[in-house]
Amino acid sequence: MTHDLVLIATGVIMLIGVAFAVIATIGLIRLPDLYTRTHAASKAGTLGSGLMLLALAVYSQELDVVTRAIAAIVFFLLTAPISSHLLARSAYLVGYRPEPSTRCEDMADYQNDELRKPTEID
């Protein structure tokens, strides 16, 4: 690619990544409870970070930088959604209830089943 085209592609990818990062930040500030906040942070934050790393790879065009950027993107995609899910599940199981406007209670039956399980003592 020519240098001007690389700069334009890098700028566009970076702006889209920054937009997703700003959306994640606004979501963390404005959303009502832990569950919706973790959703905003994990989804939009991961996408924003990944796009900014992709812009770095496009701009650099060096094999070692591109490899590290792709490895970091894969790391973000594998860890952020899983960790936010585990944080939200842990919060629910210890009793942190969603905002009343949150209508989905998929974990309610699971929590009741967990509380009813007998414990084994060796």
Strand and helix layout:
Elements lengths: L2 H28 L3 H27 L2 H31 L14 H9 L6
Helix pairs in contact: 1-2, 2-3
Would you write up a description of this structure?
This protein is mostly helical and 122 residues long. The protein has one domain. Helices cover 78% and strands 0% of the residues. The protein contains four helices and no strands. α2 (34-60) runs antiparallel to α3 (63-93). It starts with a helix and ends in a 6-residue tail after the last helix. The relative contact order is 0.12.
Which labels suit this protein?
122 residues; mainly alpha
Task: Describe the structure concisely.
The model has no long low-confidence stretch (mean pLDDT 85). The chain has helices spanning 3-30, 34-60, 63-93, 108-116.
Q: Based on DSSP secondary structure assignment, what is the total number of beta strands?
A: 0
The biggest beta sheet, please?
Answer: none
- Please identify the structural class as seen in this structure: mainly alpha
Task: Indicate the percent of residues in helices.
Answer: over 70%
Low-confidence stretches: none
| Cα-based radius of gyration, to the nearest Å | 20 Å
How many helices?
Answer: 4
* Distance, first to last CA: 67 Å
